[in-house]
Amino acid sequence: MSDSIIYDLVLTGGRVIDPESGMDAVRNVGISDGEVRAISVDALEGRDAVDATGKVVTAGFIDLHSHGQDSENYEVQARDGVTTALELEVGVGDVDEWYDDREGNTLTNFGASAGHIPVRMQVMNDPGAFLPVADAAHREASESELEEIKAGVERGLQRGALAVGFGLDYTRGCSRWEVLEIFRIAAKYEASCHVHLRGKGHKEPMSSIEATGEVIAASAISGAPLHIVHIQSTGMHATRQTLQMVAEAQERGLDVTTECYPYTAGMTAIDSALFDEGWQDKYGIDYDKLQWVDTGERLNASTFAQYRETGGMVIVHSTPEDAVNAAVLSPLTAIA
């Protein structure tokens, strides 16, 4: 044992995984002043020590897709090894206010995109809380509104937003031209576009295949990098095909990436556009696949109508297990 260096903290006997160097081996880790100073097969001396035998020691995880940006969720994320939680899909409208609210008050690092959804909601005076429920969901923007939306997204990027976020299935009235215009702004700032696809599943029209093609085309035309969020929950039975489209786009030199989450249920707002007429046929599910968050109850036609009127969050059991497996096992996907 070296008698010349005493570290603040030593982690002993853990499985050290370092994606950057490719290390995956049992090692001892010496930490001082909050930084890793040594990784060694030899014993290290420290003022404090933690026996990490049987555990993984690695860099903190970055969660690209984290909506729960509050103290409760930051604590859960930190306990799960997440050191940076990013709201890059829906994003935020007022970047300055969002950052100011969190500065010095969080357990993890944080960041957000300039959100097309919240900016569109502001411009179109949509009364929705987190997601649009009125004009911002269903109406095409006028020329003047589109200019305001573009200005709002650009202002967010100028004020420190990390990317541009889209939820195109929640803003179905948004024209393809509007999407392309916002992609162009992202490209101007070399910002990536994090997109919840406009379509879902394998059924045409508005399938996930069509929707994937829309945003890959927008990326190719504008030059903005594209990141498709939760490809398994929008791809559903077409997940393998949408993954193939991402791979082929990469092969042709496009900066296109994707992510998934490793479970078959998702959560969203029951009063959002996702539950507009025809959702059962489109998603291949019925009321019993919807679970009310507050009570845990499975819904029926009556309770669905009641809660859709009042609004709130609902768990949706809709993603086929084979879609989750395909996405998780794919080398293309990050977990987010």
Specify the CATH architecture of the largest domain.
Alpha-Beta Barrel
Tally of DSSP β-strands = 16
Order of helices and strands: EEEEEEHEHEHHHEHEHEHHEEHEHEHE
Question: Can you identify the CATH superfamily of the largest domain?
Answer: Metal-dependent hydrolases
Structural domain count: 3
Computed CA radius of gyration, to the nearest angstrom: 22 Å
Strand content: 25-35%
What's the arrangement of strands in the largest beta sheet?
6-7-8-9-10-11-12-16
Terminal Cα span: 41 Å
**Spans where pLDDT lies below 50 across 5 or more residues:** none
Largest beta-sheet details: 8 strands, parallel
CATH class of the largest domain: Alpha Beta
Q: What structural class do the secondary elements suggest?
A: alpha/beta
Helix fraction, binned, reads 25-40%
Individual helix count: 12
**Approximate shape:** globular
For this structure, the CATH topology of the largest domain is TIM Barrel
- Residue-averaged pLDDT, rounded? 97
Notable traits:
single chain; eight-stranded parallel beta sheet; 34% helix; 3 domains; 336 residues; 12 helices; TIM Barrel; five-stranded mixed beta sheet; alpha/beta; Urease, subunit C, domain 1
